[in-house]
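Extended Data, panel c. Modelled sequence:
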Amino acid sequence: MISHFRLVLSCCFASALSLSGAAQSDEILAELQQLRAQQNALAARISQIENQLGLGQAVAQDRGVIRLSEPLQANSTGMPPQLSFGGDVRFRSEINRSNGLTPNRDRGVVRARLEGRYSIDPTWALSGRVVTGALDDPNTTDVTLGQFGDDLEIGLDLLYAERSFPSGRLLIGKHPNLFATTDMVWDGDVSLQGLAGEWMRSLAPDLNIGLRGAFFVIEESEAREDSFMLGAQVFTSLRPTKRSNATFALSHYSFDLDAIDSADLGDFRTNRRTPSGAYASKFQITDVFGQLSIPTRSKDWPIRLTAQAAYNSGASASDSFAYTTGLALGDLASGGKKEISYWYSKVEQDAILTAFSNDNIPLASGYELHNANTTLRISDQIQLDGSLFLYRDRRSLPSEQRLDQGNWQLRGRANLSFRF
């Protein structure tokens, strides 16, 4: 902040004295160039530290960790661009196979997202994002091709103001999810709405601690109490060795779901319900998250281990626990070209609130899942990836009421993505 102030003062000073003499002007211009060089070096060092700590990186894959949104890059003056745009387009081919009890299904899917950001000053910014997808589905921005050639639906899934501080930031509006998590609990397409913030402090060069919180307005109602969520997360990031890094987080999400007037089957999904249609369980979810990145002898194939476990103390039955573990090999997270990964998940029926969990398979909870992924970044703007999901219905239901009677089912996906 001080450097920005000095830079502005230098510019004004140079303009005011431009007529006082060539020699004096040359000295001022030299000082201005020196300040710009210092500012660029500082911006580069901040970016380097963020990459080393695993901060400020957006995750491209559907599975994996939801981290902080990617920071804007500095321009030639060391200041963020006042207005910037970015987005992506994805084309997907999907197959679904079962043991014959459920019809096979093949489909094509497209997705487009366009995001803009306007920096009002060094501390305030406005952001918004236009996406494809059904307006009443918070879990996906995908559109299935077909439906007699109907036009694609377009919606606004982000619109928020951001206030930056030296040690954190505050988000107001419909904003990205700041919590470190996997899509077992929070799908990557879900944006929260209300108020959120984060604070971080460095205790040592290789050790940071922080706190994140959110007030999520889920349903506003005139007839009854509003539905909302209060969430909090404490986290730490550290570097156990020179080339490895780790992140750990403890979270609690308290959901109050009195008003469910606008909820539909796509929101309730696989959570239990009472005969009146309300949720059978309360949702007081505590989860533990951890990720460890380890180098190998080949710099192109580092190892990343991820685990998350969640427990719902408000569940009405014993099906209140969920966990997922993942192993990834490759350098995609650090800007490389490739990655392969495997995930195993087991989620009981009311362990999570399925309205906001993943939609990678037809079951949002009450499932067992094996998932394998491979990703190849062809260029900075083009990426090719494929996924296999082998899953089965583990809900406490008679077999004839389970999806495909509880047999294993297969879903395969191939994606071609373009970023700009």
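The first helix runs from residue 2 to 16. This feature is highlighted in the accompanying rendering.
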